[in-house]
Amino acid sequence: MAPILEINNLFKNYGSVEILKDINISIEKGDFLVLVGPSGCGKSTLLNCIAGLEPITSGQMNIGGDDMTFVSPKDRDIAMVFQSYALYPTMTVAKNITFGMKVRGVEQDVQDRKLAEVAKQLQMENLLNRKPGQLSGGQRQRVAMGRALVRDPKLFLFDEPLSNLDAKLRVEMRTEIKALHQRLGASMVYVTHDQIEAMTLATKIVVMKGGVIQQMGTPAEIYNTPANLFVADFMGSPAMNLVPAKTSKGADGTHVEIARNGGEPIVLTDAKNRDLPEDVIVGVRPEDIADADARGGEAAQVAECTIDIVEPAGADTYAVMQLGGKHVTARLHAETNAAAGVSQRLAFDLSKVSYFDPETGLRLN
Which of 113, 213, 259, 331 is the most buried (most CB within 10 A)? Predict the structure, then answer.
């Protein structure tokens, strides 16, 4: 079966400025693709190109197996949910949702049926006679989603739909969008700068920087095997620890030496990755540095570290220390006895470690 969305060699220029550079993406029907990256990386421009709101400079765009490169937005069979909701203030919720169908000449009984279905799905039957001004941000968001849902399009496009909501409501709406995707099996493309939103919602993530795709993969691939230093640093909260180190070959594997503040360096032995250059950047997630007494394991190696700062965070406690001239965060149990200024035995899990080239920033293992 043809991919629901296929983008080949897409470039987008404004005059002589290249905004998108050689974008290649393919997703299957039912995929939830999240475009993520810092402000100005080109993700919203790419979404607008998919929608047909921005013409592309070169390349090809297929939707549902049909070439849509130069087709106008209204003929692409897509529905878009904007950050600003874009609701008509003088119309009721019901009229806002059915307006597009009315314009397209859909019969009244079909309009009524679809409105009832969507209102039930989004739990807003009691809001249908209200006007947008009488709704909360979360309710307006639902109306904007309802208007997209009644169209039953090939592709749903979301442009930072939750960024205007407060933190608690964002989490609720995120859960709602995920449930909606699972119920409908719809194909969705979603733009956000929030990497937690990306990790929780996506079946596939595209990480962008400066108009270039840095990596495309499942949330697990992006999190566990970041392709370069940018992806490693951008995805994950707290971010991956990235520490300069020296390696040397030993009979038992690669010895990884990390400078320690005011003491002998830490030396960890990696039996798996034997072919590394002398200078590397070691990437370790905070959860892969634990209290030595709390966790053993084959790949865990213990080192004494002096803790600088302790940050209790409910279920976890974060301990920050200096290694290799960098702040390194460990994610410890809430009951940890780690204290600022005190030495602590920590276990480093090398089974999940990433290595990067300090020059190119590319992954080495």
Answer: 213
Q: pTM here?
A: 0.90
Residue pair 100/151 in contact (Cβ under 8 Å)? The answer is yes
* Residue 293 belongs to domain spanning: 241-356
Task: Let me know if residue 102 belongs to a domain.
Answer: yes
CA atoms in the 13 A half-sphere facing the CB of 279 = 5
| Tens of pLDDT, residues 341-355 | 999 999 999 888 999
Q: Tell me if 363 is assigned to some domain.
A: no
Burial 320-346 (b: 16+ CB within 10 A, else e): bbbbbeeebbbbbeeebebeeeeebeb
Q: What is the pLDDT of residues 68-94, one digit of tens each?
A: 999 999 899 999 988 777 899 999 999
The residue-averaged pLDDT of 2-11 equals 96
Prior bond of 55 cis (ω within 30°): no
Query: Edge-to-edge strands of the sheet including 17-27?
Result: 17-27, 5-14, 58-63, 66-67
Q: Are residues 191 and 248 in the same domain?
A: no
- Is the domain of 197 the same as that of 84? yes
In total, how many domains does the chain have?
2
Whether 204 and 27 have beta carbons less than 8 Å apart is answered as: yes
Task: Note whether 246 and 208 are same-domain residues.
Answer: no
Whether 243 and 323 have beta carbons less than 8 Å apart is answered as yes
Residues 170 and 178 sit within 8 Å (Cβ to Cβ): no
Instruction: Evaluate the CA torsion angle 191, 196, 198, 202 in order and state its sign.
Output: negative
- Picking from 194, 215, 234, the residue at the C-terminal end of a domain is 234
Residue 293 in 3-state DSSP? coil
